[in-house]
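agent> Task received from the user: take the single chain below, predict its 3D structure, and emit structure tokens. No templates, no multimer pairing.
agent> Plan: (1) validate residues, (2) run structure prediction, (3) serialize to tokens, (4) report one or two observations.
agent> Step 1 OK, no nonstandard residues flagged.
tool_call: predict_structure(input=
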Amino acid sequence: MKRIKVRQAGTKVRKSKEDKIFDFFMYALAGIITLIVLYPMYFIVIASFSDPFLISRGEVFLIPRNVSLKAYQKIMEYKQLWVGYRNTIFYVIAGTLTTLAVNIPAAYALSRKKMYGRKLFHVFYLIPMFFGGGLIPTYLVVKGFSLLDTVWVMFVPFAVVTYYIIVARTFFDNSIPEDLWEAAQLDGCGYIGFFFRITLPLSKAILSVIALWTAVGQWNAYFNALIYLRSPELQPLQIVLRNILIVNKTIGNMLTGTAGAEAKALADLIKYAVIVVSSAPIMCMYPFVQKYFNQGVMLGSLKG
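)
tool_result: status=success, residues=304
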């Protein structure tokens, strides 16, 4: 009798020559794409430490040359920088909490199939997503509510985001089964109790995703501050860094000769340092919510 060899579980399968060639090209392509994405960020970091004259001549490529902290020292001399950091941290925390407090309950309510007027509210939220009043009407509304030049103008008027509501509503529809709500009803749980005791603990993924999106948006926000804020003590980090760039660029253009060349070189160096200073904190926050990011988006878009 012929012996039939049974492959044991966990036995390594030998790949064919064609599979190995395919894997090689796929890994090579993935490596090239990763390099294309990461190198610009890496270059900005090493350029902020390098000699600006060497950067302009293209002599800085993989490692910093003539390492200097002059750009960072110049930035740290501005006392307004720390005020901007304080304001931005407050805007990020307050804006994220406000956005979650406004959009998540709305999404939960719209996910309830027995909600009266559910379709009408869907249309009500969707129309502003495609049609906006524009800058001037928005400015007049903000002014009418006496929010100009206040901390509230940075997050209260713009807290409702239709896209967040749609994503969270889809998540609740697909990830919170109706049987769970029926079981909670048998235990005497109402809509509000079900939302706080069951829905929110099961929705960490989508909460983290929306919190990350909001935090990144608030951290990078500068246009609203440019339009609605006048007091220097209320300006966020992005406006402060923008002012630093403008001041140093202006000084470089006003001076001539050797002093002008050095001032322009320092302005270019500060430009790279400003990008690092403004991007590093929010990039450090991303790893803490990364595990929820893909999970939250996919669970909100697929059935089951």
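agent> Step 4: summary for the user.
The CA atoms of residues 74 and 212 lie 31 Å apart.
agent> Done.
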